Structures are given as C-alpha cells and as structure tokens.
Amino acid sequence: MNYEEILEKLKKRGTAIPELEKIVNESLEIKTKKIFEYLEKRKNRLDEECYWCNKKANKEFTSFIYESPYDENYSEHYFCSENCRDSYEEETSFYCNNCNRFIENSNGHMNHGIEYQTEYICLDCFQKEMFENGLDIDEIEDYKGAKSNLKGSFFSEFELIEHGFEKEENYFISGTVDAKEINKKIIDLYNNDNKISIINYCHLSILGDEGHIELWIKNKK
Ligand SMILES: [Zn+2]
Ligand SMILES: [Zn+2]
Question: Burial level of 165, CB count in 10 A (0-12/13-18/19+)?
C-alpha cells in the first residue's frame, strides 16, 4: 500500500461534524505517515538476525566493512538498529580517512592500520604513500634526533622493484638502539643523498622488537 492509498482509506471513515474536517484531515495525514513508515520498515525487515544482538535485522542498518585493506569488495552485515551497527563497527573496525572505508582492525596476527602523519590509516593507503613519497622524515625524527620505532610494512619485493626502489641493506634488529641507527641512516640518505626510503619487514618477532628488516631506497622526485 502506498501513502495515498492509506490516506484515502482513512478518509473514507469520514467525520460527523463537517467543520472539523480540516483538522481531522491534518491528523489523518500524520496517522498516514506513521502507518506508511511502519509498512516501509516492515518491508525492510530481513530474514537474517541482527549481527550484534539476535533481534530481526533491518536493511536500513547495514554495515559495509572490508575484511582487509587490500580487499576490493566489502562484506555486508545486517543489524536491527543504528545502535547495534555502531557498536559492532566501533568494536571490530576502524575508519580510514584516506580511502573512506571501514576496515576490520586486524586479521588476528597484525593490525590493518598504522598511525602515520597524525592519522590512523589503513595499510593499503600507507603502502601507496610509501611507494609515492617514501618515509616522511618528520615521522622518524623529533627534536631529540632519530626515533626508536620503525615505520614499515610487509611489502612484496616485486612491487618495491616495480616502483623503482632498490635494496640498500639488510638489518637484524634487536632492541631500540639498532632501530635508532636505521632511522638516522634514513634521515642522512634523505638530507645528504636525496634518497627516499622504505622499511620492509621481513621476519619480525611477535613484539616487533627483533627480526630482519630491509631498507629500500630510490631517488627523490
Ligand atoms: Zn541488534
Ligand atoms: Zn585507506
């Protein structure tokens, strides 16, 4: 039933006092709107259960989340309300401001996002940024000098080569001293040799404080 049909049906019931017709018609419109909205809502009800609680889901409250930053297709999950949808999204995923997508926080082994240039962005955006501009020097240097955390990712060697990078060196890092040395080197390469750098994680311990990494470099544009 559409809006007009509902209204006509309600109007047919008529009114005993003609003077009241205008007022009655106005309230009829409100009533019609309510019924119409209810029917629309019912139409949107899905057979699925809410992904968060177990009530009936409603198409209106669908969440589109990418399982990984590298996925081209999102998964759809249905919810009964905005509340349930928002709770789910908050708990399981983050919003990448760069590519405007909700992406699952991690795959159970590693995070799908990284804090970079004051934003939390997805690894896909981070990698594209690395291929384009290399590591931002401000990210690895503060007023005290080179920082002791390494900002990198697991790149494919093929893609690094494809984007014009060449391998500079392998490192085995343990503790924070080596990390500082590597950041210092990247800063030197940038300032003195006009090179941009990418840190490629090869094998890292669970805590990320020990393992093999590679430094890849190319000329500044
Ligand atoms: Zn729910
Ligand atoms: Zn992104």
Answer: buried
